[in-house]
Design a protein that fits this description.
The complex is a heterodimer of chains A (400) and B (475). By secondary structure, chain A is an alpha+beta fold. Chain A contains 13 helices and 16 strands. The radius of gyration of chain A is 31 Å and the shape is elongated. The chains are: A alpha+beta (400), B alpha/beta (475).
Amino acid sequence: MLTRELAIASFENGELVPDRLNRKTDAAYLGFAEAMLAIYRSGIGRTRRLLHQAVYRVFDEQLDCPGRRIQAFCKLLDDAAEYSKGDRKKIVQLRRSVFRAAAEQHPLVVERDALFESQESEVKRRIAEDLGMSWPELRGMLFSDLIENHELKCFHGFPDGAALLSRYNVAQTQAVLFDAIKITVRATGDFKQILRYAKLARLMHRITRRSDHYRFEFDGPASVLRGTHRYGVAMAKFLPGLLSCRGWSMEAVLRPRSFRQRIRFRLDDGCKLVSGIEADSVFDSSVEEAFAMAWGEQPRDGWRLERETEILHVGQTAFFPDFVFVNEDGRRAMLEIVGFWTPEYLIAKFQVLKQFRDEPVFLAIAQSLKEKVVIPCEHPAIYYKGAIDVVAVLEMLNGR
Amino acid sequence: MNHQPSKAAKILNQAKLDFCDGTLVLDQWSSQAITRIFGEGIWTWDGRSNAWRCDPIHYPNIRKVLGSNSYGTLDRVPQWQPIVWSDIQLPEPRAEQTDAVNAWSAVRRGVVVMPTGTGKTEVALRIMADQACSTLIVAPIRDLMYQWHKRILKGLGYDAGIIGDNTYNVKPVSVTTFDSACIHMPKLGNRFQLLIFDECHHLPGPIRSDAARMSIAPMRLGLTATLERGDGQHAKLDELIGPLVYRLEINQVRGASLAEFDVFRVPVFLSERERVRYDQLSEVVSSYVYERRQEDSHFTWKTLCAETQSSGEAGIILRAYREKKSIEDRAVEKLRVLEDLFRLHKGTPMIIFAGSNAMARDVSCRFLIPCLLNHCGKAERVDYLDGLRDGVYPAIVANQVLDEGVDLPEVKIAVVIGGMASTRQAKQRLGRILRRRGDERAILYEVVAKDTNETGRSRQRRKSDAYAGTRNRKF
C-alpha cells in the first residue's frame, strides 16, 4: 500500500477522483513501467538510493508527471522487493571505532598549525589504513546501514508493465480511502465474499435489506461516537477484496485533512480496477454445484431455487444459507449444506445457526459427519451421501 | 438442585459493562434508564451490536454514577493492579517540583508546564511513586521512550514494559510512543489507571488524541515546556488530560535551576558557487510566484504545495525551493566556522544541531564525530550520549532527534547550524544546553547563512523571550 503522503487525487464536481493511469491517454506509461521493472530486475546488489535515482531518470523528460507519482512507483516496487540490511552490528561497531580513534585527534583541521596538528585528510587516511582500506571505501561503509543505503536482495515484483500500472491504480484508489470515515456498499450479489473481506479487514457492518439489493455500511467500533478516519486503513485493506466481487457499487464518505467538509468517493464493479485477488468460484463445493444442476432452472412443485440471495443477521453475526427456495405463494425456505469440515468449524457453524433457530432453515448434512460427531442442531435436517437428493429436499419443503 | 443454571442465567441476563476495541459497551439498559441515570451526552446507541457505546474517557464519570450498587450492572472493565516499588531512589525534590506534585495531586488530572531542564521527569516519577498504580507513559519518540524506561528503572527500580519500536511487551507499568499508544489503545485502554503524556502538546489531533480518549484512566498527567500550539489546539488538552494545574515560566528559573546563558550569532557567507546557484534558484521561485499572484491574488505557497501532486511544473518550483534551502543548510562555510568553534572550545564537550540528516552526516564525516540520527539503535545512542558525558567523544552532531526532552549529558556549548524558526523548537533547543552546573555560563552559537532566509528565521527566533540579548560575533 502507499502512504498518505503519496496519495494523488483531484476534486471534480464535488467528488474526489484518485490518480489513474489510463491505457489510452497514458499509453507512454506502459513503456515507463517496463523500464522501471527492468531497473529493479537487473538491480540486485544496488542500493535503494541508486534504484530510486534510476527510476527518477525514467521520468526526466516528463514534466507533467508529478513527483509523488514517481515516489509512489518507488514505494510499490520496494514493497515487492527484499533488501539486505547489511550487518548492522558490524557497521555500528565500525562507526564507533572510527569516532573513538578520531576523538584523540579532535579537532581535525584543514591546515595544521602549532596548536592543532591533526590534519584532516592525514588522520582520515591513517584511520582507514588501520582498518585495512582507503578513506573513500571507509566513507562508503560508514553509513551503509541507513535505509537508503540498503542493497536490493531480490525482486519478486510484477509480471509486466501493465501489472505494475494496475497495481498503481488500485493503490491510489486505496490511498483515497485512508481518509474515509464510512463505506456504504450496495450489493446485488457476492454478499458472502463482501462481508468476509470486510471482516478480514476488521470492519464492523450494518446490513439493511432493500427491495432488490442489500446495503452494507462499514466502519469501526468508535464510528458511532464520532466521524473518525481511524478505520481508513482498514477500509483501504478491504478494497482489493471488494474489487474481486461482482454486483456492487460503493460510496465512501471522506474527510481529508485539508478539507473542512466531508466529500464523497464513488466506485462500482464496472471500474475496471484489477486487484489481483482471484474471484471465488460461484460454488463453494462440487456438492452445491451438482445439486443446483440437478434441481435445474424450472420450479419444482412451485419452488424456485435461488443462490445466496438472503442474509440472516443478528448484531455482528451474519449467516448466508447456500440456497434459498421461493414458492409461488410467497413462502421461503433456506438450505444450508454441511459438508466435510473440521470439528472446530462445525461447532462455530452450529453456534451461528443457533441464533437463527426461528428461521425456516434446514440442513443437508454429510452422512459421514453423522457418524463422527454429535450434531447439536435444532434445525430439521436430511443426510446425504455423495450427492443431495432432490426428492428428499422437495419432501422437506412440502412437509413444512 | 438447579442453583447452577439459575445463577448462570442470572449472569447471562445481567447488564454488563465491557471494554471493547477502544470503546465502552453497555448492554441490557433501556433508553429510558440511560437518560434517567446518566443523562444525555455520554452513551450512544449502537444498532450494529445492540448495545450502548461511549468513549472510555468517560469511565470515571460512569463509575461515579453507577456508585456502589451499580444498578445490577456487572463492571468487567478495569484490568488494573497495585504496584509495589521495590526500590525508590529519587533525589530530594526542589521547591518548584514539590509545588508541581502537590498541585497535580490535589486534582489528579491536569497539565504541568515547566521549562526543559527543570526536572519534569522527577515530578512524574514522584507522582508515580505516590500513586503506585498501573501506569502508562506516552512519549513523543522512541528515544524518549527508552529514556523513560531507564529513568523508571533507576528511580523506582522497575523494569517497565515497552510498547513501540517493533516491541509489544505490556506490563502494569509500561512506556510507549504517541503513535504506538494511538494504534494499540483499543487493546490497552483498560489496563492503566494513570496516564502520563510527556511533551503533551503533541496529543491534540484527530487520531492521535485517541490515545487519551480510548483509555479509562481516571488519573492523567500532561507534561510540557510549551503548552501553546500555533493552531490553538491546546485547548483540547483540558478535555483529554485535564486543566493546567501548574506553570513555571522560563524567566523564573534563569540563574536558579538553570545556568545563565549567552547567545552568539555567527553569520557566514555563501561561497561564490553557492551564491550564484542560490540567486538563480531564488529568481526561478520568485518569478513563478510573482506571475501566479498576477493571475490569482490568493495564490500562496500552500497552493503551490497542493498543486505539486497534479502538476509537474509546481513540482519543479518546489524542487528549486528545496535546493535553495539545502544550499543554506549545507553551506560549506559553516563547516569552516565549526572548525573555528572546535578550536576555540577544545576540551569542552559540544553538541551541534544540524538542520537536516544530510548536514548532520556532512559534519560527522568532516570531523569524525558521532552523528545521532533517528536510525541509531538504543545501544549506539547510549554509547554516544554517555561517551560525550564521560569525555570519550569531544562532540556529537544531531538532527531534530534531540529537539525535545532527550536527556543530554551536561554541555555548556551548543551550536545550531540550521533548523526551524518556531518558538517552541527554539525553547526546546535552549533547554538542551541550559543545564545547571555551578556558576558557569552556557553558550549557544547560531551559525546562519547571511543574506538568505536563514537570517530571517534567526531574527524570528530571537523574538522568543528565551533568546533576549543575542549578540553577533565575527570570525
